[in-house]
Specification:
Layout: E1 2-6, E2 13-18, H1 22-41, H2 44-60, H3 62-73, H4 77-101, E3 105-106, E4 113-120, E5 123-127, H5 135-146, E6 150-154, H6 160-172, E7 180-182, H7 187-195, E8 201-205, H8 208-220, E9 225-228, E10 233-237, H9 243-255, E11 265-271, H10 275-286, H11 307-322, E12 328-329, E13 343-345, H12 353-356, E14 363-369, H13 372-379, E15 384-385, E16 387-391, H14 395-404, E17 409-412, E18 427-428, E19 431-432, H15 437-441, E20 445-452
Parallel strand pairs: 5-6, 5-8, 6-7, 8-9, 10-11, 10-16, 11-14, 13-14, 16-17
Antiparallel strand pairs: 1-2, 3-4, 4-20, 9-19, 12-13, 15-18
Helix pairs in contact: 2-4, 3-4, 4-5, 9-10
Length: 454
């Protein structure tokens, strides 16, 4: 079996790779298991030196890695460069803070001494998507490695070049062999690895269906898991918001990476008093975007990652039209490449797929709300609960509303984006567990209590 890396802009094949068999994976897992003892016995300070070196490697070859991302999944080069910067900052953060985060916690009890220690679990399998091919892999791997685990990466089948380059970063940083390995495998084999009880934990960023299957397998085997499954994030605009600023952030939050992000704003819930002004400002700014060659430094929106994505987006827009919408579509048609022109759906209804489905592409539905109470009700109406944005000049009011939003991450007058310093994850069907920050570092450790008596 083969997998292809295809350039979404040219539609040409970048490279073809052989897929590993289950037997190949078993051999690698044995090697990873043998390596775990030595890696986990290092001090946190020793392990973080490797992580710090990984940051250096990323910065030294930033342009090379960014161009691989762009050639493989169509992300505009300017955004791809930013992705590599973020990965390096992630490494810096854990290199600088992990020793403090993982130190023993003393608890006063009647005993001579009581404390909590944090020990690695073993082999952690990471299943990553293609939208941020380096960031998603590093976000999973760096905390797990720092905690003393060894890692296996099963990346999305359309980004094998990125998957292998991620492994090379850690190799060039000097990590011992088999501490981090990329497995070019299909989803069936990844499921088999979990089902055969070959790993000690699983982290998946992906679809709700895939996450549910992994959660079921891991739960049956009593393995810890983290599920990051995307969302349908609300972007609430109240009547006292700075409309021009809100519309600019709306453009960035919806159309960054051609709208392919689990935490992109996906539903614009605008109170009726300002909806006309918001749509006018939104349309003005959307026409300023440059759509085209993702290798052009000036490009804002490139192609989506796969031909199948175009087909799904077309169906979502057709569904909106069948339900009474009159979408506004921007930009010119492209004869080649997996392009989907940005679309705005004014006065969208909640029964449209554009409003209750995780739309991975540049479609922006606007839902009109009577007031803030209805806006919150609409925001909470989907099965997802990842991120949310609230726009208001009254910060106390906005914070009150933030407490009513069922989401893992709420930003007021700004854009939801992952930050190594802040926990990242959702509620409801957006996922289980947290990545990043102090909390993400503790997802794949044994939180062990030790009590000492005379």
């Amino acid at each position: 079996m083969k997998i292809k890396s295809i350039n979404p802009y040219t539609e040409e094949v970048n490279w073809v790779y052989d897929v590993l068999s289950f037997g190949d994976c078993e051999d690698q897992i044995k090697k990873s298991r043998a390596t775990f003892s030595g890696w986990s016995s290092l001090s946190v300070e020793e392990r973080t030196r490797y992580i710090a070196r990984a940051a250096e490697v990323l910065r030294q070859s930033k342009r090379v890695y960014a161009e691989i991302i762009t050639k493989e999944m169509g992300k505009p080069i300017r955004q791809a460069l930013g992705e590599i910067d973020n990965c390096a900052c992630l490494c810096d953060y854990y290199a600088e803070n992990s020793a403090e985060f993982l130190k023993d916690e003393v608890v006063e009890t009647e005993a001579e001494k009581s404390y909590v220690t944090f020990e690695p679990l073993g082999i952690i399998l990471g299943i990553a998507p293609w939208d941020f091919p380096f960031w998603q892999a590093f976000r999973f791997a760096v905390p797990a490695l720092t905690a003393g685990n060894v890692c296996l990466l099963k990346h999305a089948s359309n980004v094998p070049m990125s998957a292998l380059e991620v492994e090379k970063v850690f190799t060039e940083a000097g990590l011992p062999e088999n501490v981090f390995k990329t497995l070019l495998i299909d989803s069936k084999t990844a499921m088999e690895i979990v089902d055969e009880d070959l790993v000690d934990g699983v982290s998946i960023t992906g679809s709700q269906v895939a996450g549910s299957e992994i959660g079921e397998l891991a739960g049956r085997l009593v393995k810890p898991f983290v599920l990051e499954l995307g969302g349908s994030d609300p972007f609430i605009v109240l009547e006292d918001a700075d409309i021009d600023r809100a519309s600019q952030f709306a453009i960035e939050s919806r159309f960054l990476n051609a709208g392919q992000s689990c935490i992109a704003a996906k539903r614009f819930i605008v109170v009726e008093d300002v909806v006309v002004d918001f749509i006018e400002a939104f349309e003005l700014h959307i026409q300023e975007l440059k759509i085209g060659d993702p290798m052009d430094e000036e490009t804002d929106i490139g192609p989506v990652a796969k031909k199948e994505c175009v087909n799904i987006l077309e169906k979502i827009l057709k569904d909106a039209k069948r339900k009474g919408a009159e979408p506004h579509v921007y930009g010119e048609e492209h004869a080649k490449g997996f392009f989907f022109r940005p679309a705005l759906i004014p006065a969208a209804s909640e029964d449209m797929k554009a409003c209750n489905f995780e739309v991975f592409g540049p479609i922006a539905p606007v839902i009109i709300a009577k007031d803030e109470d209805e806006a919150v009700e609409i925001a909470n109406s989907t099965e997802f609960g990842f991120g949310a944005e609230i726009w208001s000049a009254d910060l106390e009011r906005a914070e009150r509303l933030a407490k009513r939003i069922r989401a893992g991450f709420v930003t007021i007058n700004g854009m939801v984006k992952s930050d190594p310093r802040l926990p990242f994850g959702g509620v409801k069907k957006s996922g289980i567990g947290r990545e990043l920050s102090y909390y993400g570092l503790k997802q794949f450790v044994n939180i062990k209590t030790v009590v000492v008596n005379k």
